[in-house]
Amino acid sequence: MTAVTTLTARTARFRPARALRLEIKHSPVVWALPVLAAIFYFNAYRVAAGFPPIWAVRVSVITGANLVFFSVIGAGIAAWAAAREGRRKTGDLLATTARAPWARRSTVLAATTFWVVLAYLAGVAVIYIQTALEATWGGPPLWPVAVGVVGVAAACAIGFTGGTLFPGRFTAPIVAVAVFVAWFVAVAAANGVQNAANGMRGTSVLLVAVIGRPQNPALGVFYHVAPDVSIAQVMFMGGVLLAAVGLLALSPAARVPGVRGLSFGSAGRRLTVVAAVLVGCGVAASATAFSLTGTARNSFPTGWEIPALHDAADDQPIPYTLDCTGSAFTVCIHPAFEPYLGAMSAALEPAAAEIAGLPGAPIRAEMNSGVTAQAVAGTTSVYTYSTEQEGYGGDSFWATPGMARAAVWEQGVQQDFITWFVSDSAEPDWSGPTPAEEAVAIALLAKVGAPIPQYQQFSGPSTSSGGSSTVGTVGGSGAQSGATAAQITAAAGRFESLSSAARRAWLAANITGLRSGAITLAQLP
Amino acid sequence: MTAAEVKTPPLPPAPSAARWPAPRPARSAARLVWLHLRSRRAPAAVLALAVCAAALRAVVHWRLTSGGGLTQQTPMILEGAAAVVIAVTTHGPFGEAERATGRWLPCLRLGSALALTGAAIGLLQLGVTGASLNGGVLVLARNVVGITGIGLLASLVTGGLLAWIPQLGYVAFAEYALNEAWRNPWTWPVRPPWDRGAWICAALVFAVGLGAFTLRGARSRLADDG
Question: Of A132, A338, A440, B50, whose CB is crowded by the most CB atoms within 10 A?
Fold first, then answer.
């Protein structure tokens, strides 16, 4: 007798696990896995592969488009799974079983959520492994994973609750589309504050992750990415999850098959109390997160901070040691961007050799965070560059290391470097090189094989035909009369045709006057 | 039994035949069409299409997703939603039994799919009348037609009730194609209104889907019946 009792108790203990295993085995999510895989491949994997191998940048895709589309399919499938008993007309049959309807339904919800979250985590694993193989600095951030998992689970719970309360053939797609539209309306608002000014007050749209690439390719490289906003997002979506599960438990459909609507009656008082507590906790968590984001402040360069959640240690710069290469001209880069060092060195060394020995010529190039202003040419021996500066070429650090090895990227680096050297481009009120500076830069760049940069006169449609576009105040100096692209090109050609010694001698004598804007196009040799 | 007993007078016409009027073909056809549409929840589908149109109006009117690619993306989702509604109506509740009832079923399928597609385009366009919709009615119609074609094709494999999954999957892919500025004609939602290749692709998908659905009908056994 004792043995039988023990066996029954053990069987009862394993019954929920067995039911869950059966639900997982027969879950309809399996049918959606190919679609989820395709969505992940296009919207997350390919996008992440096109980003530089920086952890925070690559990982941004898992809380962006990937979370949105997994939520959409997850919510729809959960609504579909919730309506299963009605669809298969097994409600009466199941009503005779010993297991309570709410337990049965929560098992279905758990199985559905399990599959969707598992698929989501599989995608996350792919992104993380790919990044780990390519990144040279930093480690995997975990808060985005928490945001994604809670977001997907919340979407499943919303869909399941919708499918339970309003069973019907249109429920699943309508829930999916509603989640789709809601995400995009929210994302549109969230994208609007992505480029917020320093000191801007917080807003509830921070509860939604943005879609698209982050603001800076050096995200999380020089400063920590504060987890404040992620914590608020987890709180908000966790609250939605709890509230949806609570509403589900309050529904008589979770107790008596065939009944719709909510119930606050006495049927199963303990369950009602637990469900009401769940709803209350969920609403409280979401409301708290909502109000917390209202207190957020955007501060440069660390990003959005929520005072109640913020750790001041996150504001400190992350220590690092530059990776350097080269002897005559040393090129240094942050270790996170080490894969770009070869391309930077290959680009800068010939350009630096072209101006070596001239007054104010740099002997070293260093990457910095971009927080401090670039030093003015002639006053420093170090050329500083950052991931944020926008130059005249296609040398953005948004390019992957493979793309950076292309000639066009290296030429972009050379264009920025030479333009910086011949002009006062680091001056705060500088708005473009003068025609004489442009001509000298074009001549020097031609010597290292780089094309004409996208200066104002050369960026118009007539550039290729010889350049007839004229700008009244060329560049930003305004001190010289307008010059056409053809005139600048002709002057550059004359300067380039000088012997190397003559060119260097002229530059050594006139580089200061050239930078100050005192030398005009006509005064070039 | 004698021959006289066998020779009985002919039976009078059945009283029931006299009671019922001769069937009117037009009325019967209309009743058949109505019953078919009701079995597919077409009235509810039209209501859902109207809701989609109202949502599209709201999105465009209040500029809920203005800025960047989102201006084009959210209308695309709602156009996809209309196509999803049409795909869901392909499910019939009678299963195999319905296929044995007569020869009109393919015509009814064809007619209902065409009518709902037309209604979707009309209602969505009505919803944005006077508002500035990116791409105008041409892009709207092309999206509805193409994504409906995907749904009709999917209904042959998954059944009508789950045909929305490939459709929303395609819309999600189109969002990516829009962000990445793809130019392939089969990414028709991201192509300009006058793009011939995009129109050919969308129309081809719709024609193939409509033809297959007309001839074979949606899968009656649910895909997740395991």
Answer: A440
Asked whether residue B183 is assigned to any structural domain, the reply reads: yes
pLDDT score, position A472: 36
The answer to whether residue A180 neighbours chain B at the CB level (below 8 Å) is yes
Q: Could you list the residue range(s) of the whole structural domain that residue B140 is in?
A: 38-216
* Residue of chain B with shortest Cα separation from A85: B225
Q: Which of A489, A452, A457, A453 has its CA nearest to residue A470? A: A457
Cα angle, residue A419 at apex, residues A416 and A420 outer, rounded to 5°: 80
A89, A180, A193, A194: which to substitute to probe chain B, counting the most B Cβ within 10 Å?
Answer: A180
Q: What is the mean pLDDT of residues B113-125?
A: 95
Is residue B178 situated within a structural domain?
yes
Q: List, in order, residues 6 or more apart from B139 with CB less than 8 Å away.
A: B133, B189, B192, B193
pLDDT at A9 over 90: no
Residue by residue, DSSP assigns A159-227 as: HHHHHHHS-STTHHHHHHHHHHHHHHHHHHHHHHTTTPPTTPBP-GGGGS---S--S-TTTTTSB---S
Interface check for B186 against chain A (CB to CB < 8 A): the answer is no
Amino acid identity at A110: A
d(CA A514, CA A479): 12
> Taking CA A305 as the corner, what is the angle to CA A302 and CA A310, rounded to the nearest 5 degrees?
105
Report the largest interatomic distance among the alpha carbons of chain B, rounded to a whole angstrom. 97
Nearest CA to B148 out of B97, B187, B91, B202 is that of: B202
C-alpha–C-alpha distance, residues B220 and A375, integer Å: 72
Crossing angle for the helix pair A143-165 and A101-134, to the nearest 10 degrees: 150
Cβ-proximal residues to A228 (8 Å cutoff; 6+ apart), any chain = A296, A304, A305, A306, A309, A310
Residue with tokens 């790919």: A130
* In a domain? residue B71: yes
Q: How far is CA A386 from CA A52, A218, A312, A513, in A?
A: 14, 9, 25, 27
Query: Residue A471: which H helix or E strand, with range?
Result: strand A470-471
Q: CB distance B176–A43 less than 8 Å?
A: yes
Give the bridge partners for A323, in sequence order.
A333
CB within 8 Å of A192: residues ≥ 6 apart: A205, B67
> Which residues make Cβ contacts (< 8 Å) with residue A14, sequence separation at least 6?
none
Predicted pLDDT of residue B7: 55
Residue B78's pLDDT is: 92
More confident site: A483 or A496:
A496
Q: How many CB atoms lie within 10 A of CB B76?
A: 23
Closest CB to B176 among A42, A188, A192: A42
* CA–CA–CA angle A203, A205, A211 (5° rounding): 135
Measured between CA atoms, the residue of chain B closest to residue A29 is B224
Q: Which residue has the tokens 């992104």?
A: A127
User: Would you say residue A249 has pLDDT above 60?
Assistant: yes
CB contact, 8 Å: A173 with chain B?
Answer: yes
Reported ipTM: the value is 0.84
pLDDT bracket for residue A407 (50, 70, 90): confident
Q: How many CB atoms lie within 10 A of CB B129?
A: 10
**Per-residue pLDDT, B184:** 87
**Which residues in B lie closer than 8 A to residue A47 (C-beta atoms)?**
176, 179
Instruction: State both tokens at B35.
Output: 């019953």
Residue A140: what residue type?
A: P
3-class secondary-structure state, position A401: helix
Which of A304-318, A414-428, B48-62 is predicted least confidently?
A414-428
- Cα separation, B90 vs A306, in Å, equals 50
Amino acid identity of A114? F
Place of tokens 């608002």: A189
Nearest to B125 by CA among B198, B199, B57: B57
Q: What does the alpha-carbon distance between residue A252 and residue A260 come to, in Å, rounded to a whole number?
A: 6
Report pLDDT for A466: 40
B155 occurs within a structural domain: yes
